[in-house]
Here is the input.
Amino acid sequence: MSRTEEAGRLEPVWIEFGIDDAHGSTAPIGCGSELRARAPAVANGGDDAQDRVLDRFALFRGLPASLHAYVVGHASEHALAEGDALFFKNDASDFLTLVLEGQIHEILYGPGGQELIVAAPRAGETIDEAVLLDTRSRSFTAIACARTRVLKLPRRHFAALTSVPDVLERANDLLCLRLRQTMDSLENICLHRLESRLARYLLLRIGAQGRMQDAVVEVALPATQSVLAAMLNVSRSKLNAQLKTWQRSGFAVRKGHSLQIRDLDQLRRKAYLSSVRALPVARKAPESPDIGDRARSRSALPPGARHSVL
Here is the structure.
């Protein structure tokens, strides 16, 4: 018996709802008891730690303890080394992933092997919430970029989650957020030059640190320039040239795996200058002719001419 199996001893626990594995249906509230597995890493802090672990995740924060117990009891923990794949694009979407520790890169690969990192969820985030809402295959590859621990909840247990309105609402909210982030990323990659893309990335990182009011800010960068280049969809050589240009001007200073920004207002201008320049000038739409004008216009056409009716 493996260490995980030894630590995965089961004890009966009453919960508000359960799932009938034989039929895939949700049992009525108070219908019986479920067996709760003690996942080793989650249970190290005792029952309280096991019950609170899902409060780190927006999908489950503040929901009933019985739901938390169900998820933790039916999920399995997995350890990933740096470079290990959680799943590949087009794999079956047969589990929901919760990142307990470390970080995952969500990656798209081009025909020549080039990488585009579309997201980098960390501890306390879920991966591919869409699996709760459909059964389509994975749309990206997920690779651990550091030592990582995750919980995997198999699809056969999704019915117990999707029967809770709050879970469905939050899953939809998270997907809306992902869509907005994807649109922002698409705009940056397709419509903005490298300097603006880099400045926008740094502003997001600074905002996450809660330091938008500081005069001088130090921003943690990915472990390698190759990773940052893959996030910005640019070659490593061009990224390195841009960083050196900033450093020569005194605007930014590279310090190991961090970048010190010495003028936050200038960073904002670099991020959004191209957007301001490209802002279209609003023009008043021409007034639509009335029905009589349309009739007179059509009657003025030469015989046999084709026209469309608006």
